Amino acid sequence: MNWIRPKKDLSKESSAMTVRLLKSLTMTKDEEYSCDDAHALIDQYAEAKKRGEDVEKLMPLVKHHLDMCRACFEEYEALMTALDFEETI
Ligand SMILES: [Zn+2]
Question: Is the pTM of this model over 0.85?
Answer without folding.
Answer: no
